[in-house]
Hints:
Blueprint: E1 9-10, E2 27-28, E3 30-34, E4 39-43, H1 55-76
Antiparallel strand pairs: 1-2, 3-4
Amino acid sequence: MFIKHLKLGPTGRFPQGQADATDEGEIRLAIAADHQQAIVRLAFGKPIAWLGLPSNDARALAQMLIDKADELDQRKT
């Protein structure tokens, strides 16, 4: 589903500082509309327990999810 050359997963960086002892740092993720399964798929490159985002990044992620959901819906019609 996702292109193998994408470098998903942890970067080893803490661009906002470390939130707490459980914070493992920045992670690269991919978002895709999986038309075959009719789902929006998020790939993180590793298991994650939680995701923390500054408000502007949270809004951007929300918009990306909406855009992928719209892409799936448009395909249905």
